[in-house]
Specification:
Keywords: Endonuclease, Hydrolase, Nuclease. InterPro entries: HNH, HNH_nuc. Belongs to the HNH nuclease family. It comes from Mammaliicoccus vitulinus. GO terms for molecular function: endonuclease activity. With about 110 residues, this protein is mainly α. The chain has one domain. Strands 1-2 form a two-stranded antiparallel sheet. It starts with 7 loop residues before the first helix and ends with a helix. Bound molecules: zinc ion. Zinc ion binds next to helix 3, strand 2 and helix 4.
Length: about 110
């Protein structure tokens, strides 16, 4: 049962799974369909009545590095797509920078 979530195929399968969809709904409900990051900053992104999906459920500790926490409600939070992208871009930038530095010194 050791799934490698660095593999995009496994990540896709995970996000499509029935269990994830159920957990995802529980997290959205728990967080009142609000982005926890925006709420911290005093903004409220409420989308309960919005048919267009602008909320994502995010793994606080990444799926790739902490697969054992993938269904752990304490490791999940509701983020709006903007906050989620921000988090993701930051992560990507770090990786790119590192790779670039590595190439430079190779
Ligand atoms: Zn947000």
């Amino acid at each position: 049962m050791n799934t490698d979530y660095n593999d995009i195929k496994n990540r896709k399968a995970f996000y499509k799974s029935k269990q994830w969809r159920m957990i995802r709904l529980r997290v959205l409900k728990r967080d009142n369909y609000e982005c926890v990051n925006c709420r911290k900053e005093g903004k409220v992104t409420l989308n309960r009545f919005d048919k267009h999906k602008t909320l994502d459920v995010d793994h606080i500790k990444e799926l790739e590095t902490h697969p054992e926490l993938r269904y752990d409600l304490d490791n999940l939070q509701t983020l709006c797509i903007w906050c989620h992208n921000k988090k993701h871009n930051r992560y990507q930038k770090k990786i790119n920078k590192k790779r670039w530095t590595d190439e430079r010194w190779d």
